[in-house]
Each structure stands twice: as C-alpha cells, then as structure tokens.
Amino acid sequence: MSEKVLATVAGQPITEEELQAFLNNVPREQQPYINNPQFRDQCLEQLISLHLFAQMGEEMKLEETEEFQQILKNAKKDILAQLAMRETMKGVEVSDEEVKAYYDANSQQFKKGATVSAKHILTDSEEKCQTILESILNGEKTFEDSAKEFSTCPSGTRGGDLGQFGRGQMVKEFEDVAFEAEIGEVKGPVKTQFGYHLIKVENRTEESVAAFDEVKETIRRSLVQQKQNAKYMEQVNVLKEKYLEK
Q1: Are residues 135 and 150 in contact, defined by beta-carbon separation less than 8 angstroms?
Q2: Do residues 186 and 164 lie in contact, with contact meaning Cβ atoms separated by under 8 Å?
Q3: Four-residue CA torsion sign, 15, 17, 22, 23
C-alpha cells in the first residue's frame, strides 16, 4: 500500500510518514500536541517550507560551496559518532538480581522521613485563639467549622486542612508541636511569625525505608547509567589506543 502524499514540492512528495517523523522530533514541551489537527497542519506547513528552501538551495547550487561541504562533513561525523555510541551501549543491561542486590546493600539511601497530616486555625491574637479552643473543647463547635469561621489562613475554607507535610516544611514552632501531638488532639495556642495557631493532627507516618517496588525502577535507571558511563570510558580508551596519534 502506497504512503499517503500530503503535498508535492518540485516533483518530490511529502508523505504522511515524513510528517510523522517530523512530529516525533518536535521539542519535548510540544509533544502533547502532536495529535492535534491544527498543530499537525502547522508542522506540515513548516515541512513544506523546509522542502521549498531546500529546492531553492539546489537551484542556487549551494551544494557546491565550501561552506556546504564543511557542514556536511561535520554532520556526517556527528551522525557516525552517535550511531557508534549507540552500538557501544547496545549490550548494557541491568538484571533484576543486580537491582535487588543494590537495594539490599544501600537501603538507607531510600529512607522516607516521618510525615504528619494536620489541620490548623490561624488567628491574630492569643486571646482569640484561646476562646476558639475553649468552644471546641466544650463541644460548641467542631474544629473544622471553627476553622471555616475564624481562621485567617486560606486553608480555613477547607476546614483548616494543611494536608501531609514532613519536617522542614513548616516553621519550627508549628512543626515541633505537630510532630509531638497525639492524633486527634487539639494543641495551642502556638505562636509563630504568622500569628497564633490551634493544631489538630489527623494522621502520622513514622520514618521508614521505601519498599523495593517503589524504588526499583529508579535504581535500575541509575545502574544502567553507571554501566553506560563505564562502557563509554572503556571504549574511549580502546579507541585512543587504536586511533590517537602520540
């Protein structure tokens, strides 16, 4: 079956296959748009323009210039080098056993810090914060309703929910209380540079080591890179001995 022809420039067809190859080489940030009809039309116009200027270059006999020959020589060198490096790296693989052995020997690299899920209420005075605390403790209002009504933090609209955070993500005074409080306990007033807080811890995860399945592909990529670097340097040394004049 013949390839669909999208345009013809000076007798040379521009095919669907050529357009697809062009699309596959657009910058990474444009890759999500390659199936968009309007984007494809824009790329086809660019491809047509490329053919038009190439035809113009032929008519001007630019292939016969010294500049063209030098550019062609450099391009050939780059392409040959890239293909040769690809051939060098072809056999580089990392087995599942190597990945697991690395994980077992270096598990401390994959530590996950403790985290806390918490809600808070932020006010501009200790007195106001204390009053809100008392109304929560005596059951007049829930923590979440109080956050929506009184908190000056944008999180108030979510009932004071700050989500999950680790150490170093909050100011020290806030963090110290959040990581020490019992789950469900309301602590405060806690003074920080932002004002006075009431803090309610919803959940806590202790420091742990990431499971093997969570990190195995990251380890594999790292080991492949290490092996490729070693293979590259090994091949460079071999080629130096063979071709580099001393």
Answers
A1: no
A2: no
A3: positive
How far apart CA 76 and CA 200 sit, in angstroms, is: 66
Q: Which two tokens stand for residue 15?
A: 């095919």
Q: Which residues, in sequence order, are bridge partners of residue 122?
A: 197
Residue range 162-219, pLDDT digits in tens? 999 999 999 999 999 999 999 999 999 999 999 999 999 999 999 999 999 999 999 9
Nearest alpha-carbon partner for 137 in 124, 153, 121 = 121
Neighbours of 222 (CB within 10 A): 14
pTM tops 0.90, yes or no: no
Tokens of 185: 């306990």
Residue count of the chain: 246
